[in-house]
Amino acid sequence: MTTLHMKNISIEFPGVKALDQAQFQLDAGEVHALLGANGAGKSTLMKVLSGAYDHYTGSILIDGVEATIRTPKDAQKYGIQIVYQEVDTALISYLSVAENIMLNETVNELGNKQFINWSTIHKKTTKVLKDMNIRLSSKTLVNELTLAEKQMVLIARAVRSKCRFLVLDEPTAPLSQTETDELFRIVRDLKNNGVGVIFISHRLPEIFEICDGITVMRNGQFVDRVKTTEVNQNQVVEKMLGKSLDEQYPQRLETKGEKILEVRGISDKEKVQNVSFQVNAGEIIGLAGLVGAGKTELCKVLFGHSSIVSGDVLLRGKKLRLGALSSCSARISTCSRRT
Question: How far apart (Å, rounded) are the C-alpha atoms in residues 41 and 219?
Fold first, then answer.
């Protein structure tokens, strides 16, 4: 069985020890979560694995043999690929899907020193996409794709590069539920084909849905390695924080002031339909919803960017005319400063 083992990994930056004797282990055909609060060292550890940082101490073993990984090319040689959350930085937007997927291929695989065999490029790309059940044309330009489709292109490139270990860094952050389901289908297919997947996410329900095991980090150090079937979400959070949830979120007495902003049944011409809420002084209101639910559109309405078809917005009891972007946003900003 193919295994990846990172042992006693430490790395320092000026004034900061980012990793301190960190440990991580992954088996072939396993989806393993790497969890921790912001600043725990997850991304730093993965950048060591992917060859982005070369000044670390410790060892990386693959199949029990120490691997020399000091550059991204070294990592790729061992079959290690990483897909970052910022997918646009890893793709060339004005090139096609095929050109981006075949980007790491050698000249001999694409044609010869004088000519590129475009027919071969598109044929090989189409086969990769078909094998992964990704419904994209090899000739589509990357700048015409959605975020989810761009992510699929990067994963297809990794698979084409004979990936043995794939790191997915916050892959579902920009995705809708439908797109997330499609991503999980691909991850499960990779798992069944023997690829080890490292899954980094702050969405715990997803971790328990897709992952076989969990490694928790805190303050640059290894905390614990457990199977998802042996713990619950609260226990994982406590391992991440180093304290119980009751200590982290003590009960507080609610103190609200006067009603500042009131939204009554507003609708726009698109997604916002009959939305109502109010905000009091000393209160924080959260807007939650899946991608495409209308959160951004609601904010645009409140700041005068989009027109209201019906409903009212009242500021300290006085009805606002949300027509001009500058006057509306200035009033709401002034209100927030005064409270």
Answer: 7
Same fold, 3-247 and 259-338: yes
- Pairing type for strands 57-62 and 259-267 reads unpaired
180, 209 in Cβ contact below 8 A? no
Q: Is 243 helix (H, G, I), strand (E, B) or coil?
A: coil
Locate the domains of the chain by residue range. 3-247, 259-338
The residue that leads in pLDDT, 248 or 19, is 19
Tokens at residue 245, please? 């949830």
Task: Give the residue from 197, 137, 142, 196 showing the smallest Cα distance to 171.
Answer: 197
The per-residue pLDDT of the chain, averaged, comes to: 86
Kindly give the pairing relationship between strand 310-315 and strand 16-27.
Answer: unpaired
Average pLDDT over residues 141-163: 90
Determine the distance from the C-alpha atom of residue 176 to the mean position of all C-alpha atoms in its chain, rounded to a whole number: 12
Provide the sign of the torsion angle of the four alpha carbons 291, 100, 4, 23, taken in this order. Answer: negative
Which strands sit side by side in the sheet containing 318-319, from one edge to the other? 275-280, 259-267, 310-315, 318-319
Q: What share of the chain is helix, strand, coil (3-state, %, to 5)?
A: 35, 25, 40
In angstroms, the CA 131 to CA 310 distance is 49
**Order of strands across the sheet with 196-200?**
80-83, 165-169, 196-200, 31-35, 213-218, 221-227
pLDDT at position 30 is 96
CA-nearest of 272, 266, 274 to 322 is: 266
Q: Which residues contact 103 (CB under 8 A, 6 or more apart)?
A: 92, 157
**259-338 fold:** Rossmann fold (3.40.50)
At residue 308, the pLDDT reads 83
Give the closest residue to 53 by CA, choosing from 102, 100, 88, 16. Answer: 16
Q: What CATH number is given for 3-247 in this structure? A: 3.40.50.300
For residues 102 and 124, the answer to whether their CB atoms sit within 8 Å is yes
* Number of CB atoms found within 10 A of residue 144's CB: 11
